[in-house]
Amino acid sequence: MSDVASTFRDQYGAEPDGLWAAPGRVNLIGEHTDYNDGFVLPFALPERVVAAASRADAGWRVWSDLEEEPASFDDPGEPGAVSGWAAYVAGVVWALRDAGYEVPPANLALTSDVPLGAGVSSSAALESAVLTALIDLGGLDIPVADRPAIAQRAENVYVGAPTGIMDQSASIRCQAGQALFLDCRSLEVEQIPFDVAAEGLAVLVVNSNAPHRHVDGEYGARRKSCEEAARLLGVPALRDVAADGLDETLERLDDHVMRRRVRHVVTENQRVLDTVELLRSGRIREIGPLMTSSHASMRDDFEITVPEVDVAVEAALMAGAYGARMTGGGFGGCVLALIDADRADATAAAVADAYAEHGFTAPTPFVAVPSQGATRL
Ligand code: ADP
Ligand code: MG
To answer: Which is deepest, 184, 206, 213, 322, by most CB within 10 Å?
Structure first.
């Protein structure tokens, strides 16, 4: 990460009013449950976007250490008016205004060590850092609980990327040493102790570096299939399908593929609840089998994994992980493995060896420490 305060000085010839940070996230468990009004359990990463920012006279200027060219806009206009990476920034300004707030013109300089497009939500980190900075610069009175939906609208409506509320909630509301148990219907949250290091454990994240394959189309198709299934079952969302008696419920659906999609969502919601129960009583190791069955469900029922992530999960389990699963929307992205803290290198090496055997591009491993959500530094 570059020294963003000195970059700010170089770019704008003045000291920034402040520094704000917002992290990327991984989801411990609960995949494709968010848009089904269900449960998710993400935690924030130490990797984050840091924004140095000041009020300006007019318009918005943004510089990012990940981009060749700075961006600027006098007005966010209507969704689509600003494109490219700056759309995430313009989208936040637009969404704040659309929610009725007066947004201060600002100069921003951004630095980030959140990998882009790796499934750890660099987009939410960017939106959340900019949102938090603009809220503070403008002295806007917006409860933390209301902020994720504003950042989500920036991404959904302005950028035009359909995502659930999880990513922005995680980036804004997570706390260090905790996972965020989020009910995506009520938006109620509960901080769940997840201090892996204190238990001699670690979460190894392996970026599969798999090429993205039709992610948007497949995401849309899964979403549509879930909505259609809820309609056929006469419930507002798949969240309302009980895990008890699931087999009988599934018989009411003719389509075999749809049955499997529903089974994933219903069993995944239950696995989140079971994981939360175990973590509340400090039984971290025991969540391993839930992680592994979550992966099997994504692979066999929801069909959103690719060979690279399946191989990484297998290799991590063979190397002694308590559990392993793909995290994120699927079709690539990252794998999480719950391991003994002293097994990080050995597990990463086992995955790398398996990738070499399969002729896959080498994976990128890192240890994920549950960290603080968006904050002023
Ligand atoms: P993910 O959120 O999984 O990392 P996305 O495709 O949703 O992947 O978001 C990645 C995009 O977000 C990038 O292509 C870029 O446009 C934008 N982005 C994220 N972080 C930054 C940053 N620090 N500077 C500029 N653009 C960024
Ligand atoms: Mg994203």
So the answer is: 206
30 within 8 A of 298, measured Cβ to Cβ = no
Ligand 2: distance of its center to the CA of 281 in Å?
A: 32
Average pLDDT over residues 330-339: 95
**For the CA of 120, the nearest atom of ligand 1:** 3
Residue corresponding to tokens 């297998």: 314
CA distance 295 to 155: 27
**Residue 286: both structure tokens together:** 């025991």
Task: Encode pLDDT of 5-61 as tens digits.
Answer: 999 999 999 999 999 999 999 999 999 999 999 999 999 999 999 999 999 999 999
Radius of gyration of the chain (CA): 21
Both structure tokens of 217? 């189309």
* Pocket lining for ligand 1, CB < 6 angstroms: 49, 64, 66-67, 85, 88, 110, 112, 116-119, 121-123, 126, 161
Q: How far apart are the first and last CA of the chain?
A: 15
How confident is the model over 281-290, as pLDDT tens digits? 999 999 999 9
List active site positions. Answer: 167
Residue 210: name the closest of 356, 363, 332 by CA. 332
β-bridge partners, 340: 201
Q: Give the number of the atom of ligand 1 that is nearest the alpha carbon of residue 111.
A: 23
